[in-house]
Amino acid sequence: MNERELVKKLKILFENAGYNELVKVFALTNLATKRFHELWQEWWKTKFLPKLEVDMILVFRESQKEVFMPAIEIKYFKDSSARDFREGIQQALSFGIFGFDSLILWHIFPEEASKEEIETIVKPCKEVVDGFRLPITYFATRLTKDNKFELYAPWKWLSSVDVNPYQMIGYIKNESMKKKNLRLWEEEIQKRRKLLKVLLKIPI
């Protein structure tokens, strides 16, 4: 299973989890396709738009009129030796200019990855995210064969507990709401957020 296949699998797991507040799950959403081009061009004033694909967008219903939309950058460490702990940080930060409510970086490891291998990625990544107070919610999990998760970040003590998809959605929602997009209240970002909702066919 490669990274894109994993994202599609997570989408299905989350959609079937029965989490009532989760009303929509988007996977591999490209915000620079022709469909988006003319609308984004109003702000960038150029035909060369930034390349940006969001691995996963979750849409939670907060009230009849409001939604909470975190964007998730997923990195799958199928071969930990070939990947870097910094992977995904830049992409996750870039989501902030599009008006997402929260920015999430999620490192996922296969079941055969050892705890030592996982720690070589998780520990320095947490130091960067937490030490520099980056506006990113960082998750690191090992995915088991029965589609459950062992958590290594943000809470290492949950690494010995199998978390099901329903619980994982709850953790993602609750933790990301504690660290919202710092630019969300800017007028320009609010305009982009409204446009984003239109493009995703989410009622304003």
Question: Could you characterize what this model shows?
Answer:
There is one protein chain. Strands 1, 2, 3, 4, 5, 6 and 7 form a seven-stranded mixed beta sheet that branches. The protein has one domain (3-199). The protein has helices spanning 3-15, 34-44, 89-94, 115-131, 165-177, 187-199; strands at residues 22-30, 53-61, 67-68, 70-76, 102-109, 137-143, 149-153. The termini are far apart. The chain has six helices and seven strands, in the order H-E-H-E-E-E-H-E-H-E-E-H-H. The model has no long low-confidence stretch (mean pLDDT 87). By secondary structure, it is an alpha/beta fold.
Compact overview of the structure:
This protein has helices at residues 3-15, 34-44, 89-94, 115-131, 165-177, 187-199, and strands at residues 22-30, 53-61, 67-68, 70-76, 102-109, 137-143, 149-153.
Query: Could you give the distance between the termini?
Result: 37 Å
Number of strands: 7
- Helix and strand content put the structural class at alpha/beta
- How many helices in DSSP terms? 6
Oligomer: single chain
From N to C, what is the helix and strand string? Answer: HEHEEEHEHEEHH
How would you sum up the global shape?
globular
> Total domains, how many?
1
Helix content: 25-40%
Radius of gyration: 17 Å
Q: Give a short account of the largest sheet.
A: 7 strands, mixed
> Overall mean pLDDT score?
87
Strand content: 15-25%
Low-confidence spans: pLDDT under 50, at least 5 residues? none
How is this fold's topology laid out?
Elements (H helix, E strand, L loop, with lengths): L2 H13 L6 E9 L3 H11 L8 E9 L5 E2 L1 E7 L12 H6 L7 E8 L5 H17 L5 E7 L5 E5 L11 H13 L9 H13 L5
Parallel strand pairs: 4-5, 5-6
Antiparallel strand pairs: 1-2, 2-3, 2-4, 6-7
